[in-house]
Amino acid sequence: MSQSADPLYSIPAPYRRMENMHILFWLLKDIGWCMIWKPLGLTMIFPTLLIAVLITWRTRDIKAELAHNLAIVFWISANSYWMISEFFGFDTFRVWGSVTGKHLALLPFLTGLLILLYYYLVQKPRETRAAQVATL
Questions:
Q1: Alpha carbons 54 and 46: distance in angstroms, whole number
Q2: pLDDT digit string (tens) for 118-129?
Q3: Are 85 and 42 within 8 A, CB to CB?
Q4: Fewest 10 Å CB contacts: which of 21, 44, 62, 128?
Q5: How does residue 76 score in pLDDT terms, banded at 50, 70 and 90?
Q6: CA distance 29 to 83
Q7: How far is the C-alpha of 33 from the C-alpha of 54, rounded, in Å?
Q8: Is the pLDDT of residue 23 over 60?
Q9: Residues 32-42: tens digit of each pLDDT
Q10: CA distance 19 to 3
Q11: Which of the 8 DSSP states describes residue 123?
């Protein structure tokens, strides 16, 4: 078999277990939301968000991982806010014009999107150019 020129990215077993636990917490949070089980949904916000932040911190030296994991942190934040707005009934409350409490979840969603856009439009092309120069 030929070896790829791409660097290998491996995840240490304890990190992998943490990521798997993160998925479990995230699913439980969303099941709580779907079934309107407020205690479960609200309780699972903290461990889901905490592990997302820890994963982001641990992968901060790899720009691609940092960008994607930051986007996930903002996604979970937006998702959690949206759930809370529905649980406590301010999702339909008008904040400004036709913007409701639920629409405020767009702020963290868009923040995550902007981070990814920056990575793909600015950072990744920069890394690609630097790698091409290094191989000359």
A1: 12
A2: 999 999 999 888
A3: no
A4: 128
A5: very high
A6: 9
A7: 24
A8: yes
A9: 999 999 999 99
A10: 28
A11: I
For the chain, the maximum distance between any two Cα atoms, rounded to a whole number of angstroms, is 61
Q: For the beta carbon of residue 70, count every other beta carbon within 10 angstroms.
A: 20
Handedness of CA 31, 37, 41, 44 (dihedral sign): negative
The answer for residues whose C-beta is within 8 angstroms of residue 37's C-beta and 6 or more apart is: 31
Contact 91, 79 (CB under 8 A): no
Structure tokens at 25: 């917490």
User: Which carries the bigger pLDDT value, residue 130 or residue 57?
Assistant: 57
- Alpha-carbon gap, residue 52 to 79, rounded angstroms: 13
Which amino acid appears at position 41 of this protein? G
User: Among candidates 64, 67, 69, 50, which has minimal Cα distance to 9?
Assistant: 64
Spatial separation of the C-alpha atoms in residues 130 and 100, rounded to whole Å = 45
Cα(first)–Cα(last) distance of the chain, in Å? Answer: 26
Alpha-carbon torsion 46, 34, 37, 87, what sign? positive
